[in-house]
Write a structure and sequence with these properties.
By secondary structure, the chain is an alpha+beta fold. Helices cover 57% and strands 11% of the residues. The strands form three sheets. Strands 3, 4, 5, 6, 7, 10 and 11 form a seven-stranded mixed sheet that branches. The protein has a two-stranded antiparallel ribbon with strand order 1-2. A hairpin with a 5-residue loop joins strand 8 and strand 9. The protein is globular. The two termini are 48 Å apart.
Length: 598
């Protein structure tokens, strides 16, 4: 059976020693009184819930899956899921970072980020049920009417009801301009929504009595394409004026997808046959409202892979210490045993350290993103809010794509550590791989994320946002550049930071002449950008560790952090050289290939 221990020490290290979040939040009136003890206590309790309540459900939930009753259109989740969700609601976990006006606890998004990382390590499939509700909450909080907020937000905040996002149609995925679901106004402020949606995660289940669907559809006079899309709130059950549930709304689950991973989450096909809904936001501007939810979801998907990377690493490490196989090439290490544990072999360590580095770098990046999201929403200084929002926009596609690419690589490495035992279900290793694979696809494939990063977030403003983040890197280089002990971390970071400017300019000029050049280079470009961000945070973490050791600390945590940083810069960071070379090779070797692809 798989194991899981919440990585509280590393979370606390990033939170308090690297990001200094308590000091950062003092500038935000709503969080000015927060202290480290409170944040740590919440995370400790959250870790217990993840490890003790949710994690034991993961393996058997994957084997059991969800069941659809085609006569009633009702879905039953795996054994134990409903009870765990009831404990989640009872413990107030759904309300952690939500607005107190609607019953939330008002804690920083950073705490929610860390809690959901632990939940994703415990069971990504289970965590998707409350995770999607948080995205629905964000969209309604930003764009809902007063009546919608009053009726639905308290229920979403408490977790009593759950939420979904309904975008994809059988003929229409990323290109939402092609969607055909229609909404007919009824003259009383409501609309009858008709159409079919597919791939709707948590689209039907038995965890909560009502599900709030946020559905993209077209009004009768809507312009063609993405400019003619509106967003509608369509509840599974109508809500009476007193808040109680009324009649069933005709939005039904007609099928569940049989898929590679996340078996325990209901990926639903939904049919809307004149279902009653209300407009969210302005007519024909539904994408603006939905993007609030989608961006939240993209950060959440990166967090899913972060959680899987951590739990896969923990299990592979434990196995590598116990599994006996051959002798070390440099001589016997376990003389009292018939063979050495496989952790003595260099390539096994390389796989383990790859997963460890991707987890620790990803955690620092994700927690930083949550911190600046808080500043973007609540900082009293308008310039700080705008700068934070801009940098968060830059990081969002990197968090989604880089962390999910890394998560799939890491879970594969960890399965490899198990050897043949990794290929069977009971160790849990192969499930982590299968679950991780979807994260590179949904909420905008990683290629779409790379196009968003390079085409929209960087080239559209001539790299201005990248330069803003670059100033943080320059400040670290200036501060630590004369520290000989930091040279092995600072020098490669400084080199890539300098190369990044030239690299971006070159791709931009090529794209100006031929836009396909951006498409040909974007995926490689995003990975280079991801390593730039990882390198920055690993250098910051190494700096803290060196200072603590210099002050006399004997805590092995700091030694481990330095060893992981050294591995990252020596073995993973150099990938940037080959990526820049392939990106610079031009688009002709991709498009001048009609004969090859005949």
């Amino acid at each position: 059976m798989p194991i899981y221990t919440p990585p509280l020490r590393d979370m606390q290290f990033v939170m308090h020693e690297v990001l200094n979040v308590v000091d950062e939040f003092k500038a935000l009136p709503k969080h000015a009184d927060l202290d480290a003890d409170t944040l740590n206590a919440v995370l400790e309790e959250g870790g217990k819930f993840a490890a003790e309540v949710v994690q034991p459900l993961n393996l058997r939930g994957d084997a059991e899956g969800c069941t659809l009753d085609k006569a009633t259109h009702e879905v039953t989740t795996p054994t134990g899921f409903k009870d765990a969700y009831a404990q989640f609601v009872e413990g107030g976990w759904a309300a952690l970072s939500c607005d107190p006006e609607y019953g939330g606890q008002g804690l920083p998004l950073l705490i929610n980020q860390c809690f959901y990382e632990m939940l994703n390590s415990a069971s990504q499939a289970w965590t998707m049920y409350p995770g999607l509700s948080h995205g629905a909450y964000e969209a309604l909080h930003a764009h809902g009417t007063d009546e919608q907020k009053k009726t639905f937000l308290p229920k979403l905040v408490s977790g009593e009801w759950t939420g979904t996002m309904c975008l994809t149609e059988p003929h229409c995925g990323t290109d939402l301009g092609l969607l055909t679901t229609r909404a007919e106004p009824q003259g009383d402020g409501t609309y009858r929504v008709t159409g079919n949606k597919i791939f709707i995660s948590a689209g039907e289940h038995d965890l909560a009595p009502n599900i709030i669907h946020l559905v993209l559809a077209r009004l009768p006079d809507a312009p063609k394409g993405s400019k003619g899309i509106s967003l509608f709130l369509v509840p599974k059950y109508h809500v009476k004026p007193d808040g109680s549930l009324g009649e069933r709304n005709p939005i039904f689950c007609t099928g569940l997808e049989h898929k590679m991973g996340i078996h325990a989450n209901a990926t639903a096909q939904l049919s809307l046959d004149g279902a009653i809904g209300t407009l969210v936001g302005e007519p024909n501007k539904g994408l603006q409202a939905m993007f609030v939810m989608m961006n939240t979801a993209r950060l959440g998907v990166g967090n899913q892979s972060l959680g899987l990377t951590e739990v896969a690493y923990q299990n592979a490490l434990a196995y590598a210490k116990e599994r006996l196989q051959m002798r070390s090439l440099s001589g016997t290490k376990a003389k009292d045993k018939p063979a050495d544990p496989i952790i003595v072999h260099p390539d096994v360590r390389k796989m383990l350290l790859t997963a460890k580095a991707y987890a620790e770098g990803g955690r620092a990046m994700a927690m930083y993103g949550a911190m600046i999201a808080e500043k973007a929403h609540h900082h009293p200084d308008d310039k700080v809010r705008k700068d934070s929002e801009e940098i968060l926009g830059l990081l969002t596609p990197i968090v989604k794509a880089f962390l999910t690419d890394n998560g799939f690589a890491a879970t594969n490495h960890c399965m490899q550590v198990f050897g043949g035992h990794g290929y069977i279900h009971e160790t849990g290793a192969e499930q982590f791989v299968r679950d991780a694979r979807i994260n590179m696809i949904y909420e905008g494939t990683n290629t779409v994320q790379s196009l968003d990063l390079l085409g929209r977030k960087i080239l559209q403003n001539q790299g201005a946002t990248l330069k803003k983040f670059g100033k943080q890197i320059e400040a670290l280089i200036a501060e630590e550049g004369v520290n000989e002990k930091m040279a092995e971390f600072i020098n490669p970071l400084a080199t890539l930071a300098d190369q990044m400017t030239k690299f971006t300019t070159e791709i931009g000029f090529k794209g100006f002449v031929n836009a396909d050049e951006v498409g040909g280079a974007s995926v490689d470009y995003l990975r280079v950008a991801g390593h730039l961000v990882f390198g920055y945070f690993f250098a910051r973490m190494a700096s803290v560790a060196l200072k603590k050791i210099g002050e006399g600390s004997t805590d092995p945590f700091y030694t481990a952090k330095l060893q992981t940083a050294r591995f990252y810069f020596a073995r993973l960071f150099p990938e940037t050289a080959s990526l820049m070379r392939t990106a610079r090779s031009g688009v002709a070797n991709l498009l001048d290939t009609d004969a090859a692809l005949t």
